[in-house]
C-alpha cells in the first residue's frame, strides 16, 4: 500500500476494531502487525499507542536508524491534527475479546465495527464528559467525602448486602476520581486541542535543542569515575568479609548494589552506547549477574511505565494492592493491562491500606526479595520470549542469574558464612540497605496525581504532571544516581544521566513558557509528599469503611 495514500479516520478505526495495531507517527498511519511481536521493547509498549498520535513517544525512544526503519510500515497519510482514539488494551474487556478472537469468535468491538464503524474520538470525549459530571451530586459536596463524621457522607448508599457494599464502594471511588480530575484540570494548562498542540510544538523545539546541545552524547569519562566508586565499594566489601566483619561487609555490599544499579538503569534506556546489543549486555551483567535481578523484567515494565505514567489500571509501578494504594481507583478493583490480572479490593486491602503511611519504609526495606520473584516469573513467562531478534536475551539472563545465585546464594551465604544467625543477619542487612534505592524509585511518582485528564492531554504535560524531581546540590548527584531528575528523564529517557542536570535548566524554561508546573522538592520534602499521599488515600478508605459501618448499623441512607 502506497505511503502517500490518504487513510481516513474511519478506516483506521475499523481496522483497529478488527485487531490491527495501527499507530500514528509524523502524519502517517503505521501498520505494525508484522513488527509488534519482534519489538525489542515488548508488544505492550505498542499496544498502548494504538490509535494515538505517538510521534513524540516514538521519537524520544528511538534513534535515527529505528526511525528510518519505521517508514516501511507506513500504510498512508492521515488528516492532521489527529484526534487520539482510546487504545483497545485500555478497555476492561480487552483480554476477554482477545481470548474470544483466538477461538474464532469476533470481539464485540469488531462486530460493532462491521455494522457501523464507531467514532472512537466522540466516544473518548463522552467518557471524559462522564468523568467530569457529578452524577447527581453537586461538586461542593465532594469535600465532605474525607470527613470523619459519617453523618456528613451523602455519597454512600445504605449497605444491606455484599452487592450493596461493592456498589457503594465503586460509587465512592468514582466520586473521588472525579474530584481529582477536576483538581487536575484546574491546576494545569487546558487540555483543549489548541493549547495542547502549542505545548507539543514547544516540546519538539526543546527536543531539538537537547540534540543540538549534544546532550545525547555520552561522556565515558563519567563512567570511568563511576567504575572507580563501584570497584572501591566491592573491594571494601571483600576486605571486610575476609576480616570476618560479616555484618559490616553486608552494609557495603548493599551500598554497592544501590550504586551499580544506576548504570543498569542507563543501559536499560540505551543511554550508554546507544547500541541495543551492547547496552543490553551491560545491563544484564550488572542487573542479572551482579544483583540477581532481571533487566528484561525491568525493561518490560519500565517501558510501559514511561508511556502511561501513573495510570492505575495500566502502570505496573503503581499496582501494589493490598499493601499500598496511591489512587482511589483501586477501591473499584482493577484489571491490570500489564499483568492481565485483577487486583481485587478485599478485606486485606481495607485492613492494610489505612496503615500504609507506616508500612511504607518497612516494606521498602524488604522490597528486593519481591524483585527476585518478579525477575524469575518474567523469565519463565511468554513475555520474555516475545522479543523477536532479541530472543537471545532470555538465555543470557538465565545464565547470569544462575551465576549470581551460585556465587552469592551458595558460595557466599551457604558455604562461607559460619553460622545461621550470621547468614540471616548478612542477607537482611545487605538487602535492607538497598531500601534507599527503592525509596528513590517510588519517590518521584507515588506522591503525584493519578487522574486521567483525557485523550487530548499531551505527552509532555502528563509526564510533568505525574512526576517530581528531587532537588539536591551537584556534589550529591552520585548518591541519587540520576533518579533525582525523573521529570527531565521522563521527557527525554535516552539522555545519559550525567547530562540531565544541564537539561534540567532547559526543562525549567519550557515549563515557565508553557505554564506547566515543574515539581521539584528536596529529598526530605519529597518523602513528606509521598507519605502525605499515602495518608490521603488511607483517610479515604477509613471514611468509606466508617460510613458503611454507620449505615449498616442505623439503616440511614446518608442523604441528608
From TrEMBL:
Keyword Transferase: no
Matches recorded under Pfam families: Cyt-b5, FA_desaturase
Location(s) in or outside the cell: Membrane
TM helices/strands, residue ranges: 232-256, 276-298, 358-378, 398-417, 424-448
Annotated protein name in UniProt: Delta 8-(E)-sphingolipid desaturase
Region span, Disordered: 102-121
Enzyme type, top EC level: oxidoreductase
Pathway where it operates: Lipid metabolism; sphingolipid metabolism; Sphingolipid metabolism
Membrane topology: Multi-pass membrane protein
Protein's organism: Melanomma pulvis-pyrius CBS 109.77
Amino acid at each position: 500500500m502506497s505511503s502517500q495514500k490518504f487513510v481516513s479516520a474511519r478506516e483506521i478505526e475499523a481496522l483497529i476494531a478488527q485487531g490491527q495495531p495501527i499507530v500514528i507517527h509524523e502524519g502517517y498511519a503505521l501498520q505494525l502487525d508484522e513488527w509488534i511481536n519482534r519489538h525489542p521493547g515488548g508488544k505492550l509498549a505498542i499496544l498502548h499507542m494504538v490509535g494515538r498520535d505517538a510521534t513524540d513517544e516514538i521519537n524520544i525512544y528511538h534513534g535515527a536508524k529505528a526511525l528510518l526503519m519505521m517508514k516501511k510500515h507506513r500504510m498512508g497519510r492521515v488528516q492532521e491534527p489527529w484526534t487520539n482514539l482510546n487504545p483497545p488494551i485500555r478497555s476492561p474487556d480487552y483480554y476477554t475479546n482477545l481470548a474470544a478472537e483466538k477461538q474464532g469468535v469476533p470481539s464485540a468491538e469488531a462486530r460493532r465495527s462491521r455494522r457501523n464503524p464507531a467514532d472512537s474520538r466522540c466516544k473518548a470525549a463522552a467518557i471524559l464528559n462522564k468523568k467530569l459530571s457529578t452524577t447527581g451530586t453537586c461538586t461542593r459536596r465532594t469535600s465532605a467525602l474525607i470527613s470523619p463524621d459519617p453523618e456528613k457522607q451523602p455519597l454512600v448508599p445504605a449497605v444491606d448486602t455484599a452487592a450493596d457494599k461493592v456498589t457503594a464502594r465503586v460509587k465512592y471511588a468514582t466520586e473521588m476520581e472525579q474530584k481529582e480530575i477536576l483538581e487536575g484540570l484546574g491546576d494545569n494548562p487546558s487540555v483543549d486541542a489548541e493549547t495542547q498542540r502549542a505545548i507539543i510544538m514547544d516540546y519538539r523545539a526543546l527536543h531539538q535543542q537537547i540534540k543540538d546541545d549534544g546532550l545525547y552524547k555520552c561522556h565515558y569519562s563519567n563512567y570511568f569515575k563511576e567504575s572507580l566508586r563501584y570497584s572501591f565499594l566491592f573491594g571494601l566489601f571483600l576486605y571486610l568479609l575476609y576480616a570476618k566483619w560479616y555484618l559490616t561487609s553486608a552494609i557495603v555490599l548493599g551500598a554497592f548494589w544501590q550504586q551499580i544499579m544506576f548504570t543498569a538503569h542507563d543501559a536499560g534506556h540505551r543511554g550508554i552506547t546507544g547500541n541495543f546489543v551492547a547496552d543490553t549486555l551491560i545491563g544484564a551483567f550488572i542487573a542479572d549477574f551482579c544483583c540477581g535481578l532481571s533487566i528484561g523484567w525491568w525493561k518490560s515494565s519500565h517501558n510501559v511505565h514511561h508511556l502511561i505514567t501513573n495510570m492505575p489500571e495500566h502502570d505496573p509501578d503503581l499496582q501494589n494492592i493490598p499493601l499500598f494504594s496511591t489512587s482511589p481507583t483501586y477501591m473499584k478493583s482493577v484489571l491490570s493491562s500489564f499483568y492481565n490480572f485483577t487486583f481485587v479490593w478485599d478485606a486485606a486491602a481495607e485492613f492494610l491500606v489505612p496503615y500504609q503511611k507506616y508500612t511504607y519504609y518497612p516494606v521498602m526495606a524488604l522490597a528486593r526479595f519481591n524483585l527476585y520473584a518478579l525477575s524469575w516469573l518474567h523469565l519463565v513467562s511468554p513475555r520474555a520470549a516475545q522479543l523477536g531478534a532479541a530472543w537471545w536475551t532470555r538465555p543470557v539472563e538465565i545464565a547470569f542469574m544462575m551465576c549470581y545465585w551460585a556465587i552469592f546464594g551458595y558460595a557466599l551465604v551457604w558455604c562461607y558464612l559460619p553460622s545461621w544467625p550470621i547468614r540471616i543477619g548478612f542477607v537482611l542487612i545487605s538487602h535492607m540497605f538497598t531500601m534507599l534505592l527503592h525509596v528513590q524509585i517510588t519517590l518521584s511518582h507515588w506522591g503525584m496525581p493519578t487522574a486521567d485528564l483525557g485523550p487530548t492531554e499531551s505527552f509532555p504535560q502528563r509526564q510533568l504532571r505525574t512526576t517530581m524531581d528531587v532537588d539536591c546540590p551537584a556534589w550529591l548527584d552520585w548518591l541519587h544516581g540520576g533518579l533525582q531528575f525523573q521529570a527531565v528523564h521522563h521527557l527525554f529517557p535516552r539522555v545519559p544521566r550525567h547530562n540531565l542536570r544541564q537539561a534540567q535548566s532547559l526543562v525549567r524554561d519550557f515549563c515557565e513558557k508553557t505554564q506547566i508546573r515543574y515539581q521539584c522538592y528536596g529529598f526530605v520534602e519529597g518523602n513528606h509528599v509521598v507519605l502525605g499521599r499515602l495518608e490521603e488515600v488511607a483517610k479515604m478508605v477509613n471514611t468509606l469503611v466508617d460510613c458503611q459501618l454507620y449505615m449498616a448499623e442505623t439503616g440511614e441512607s446518608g442523604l441528608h
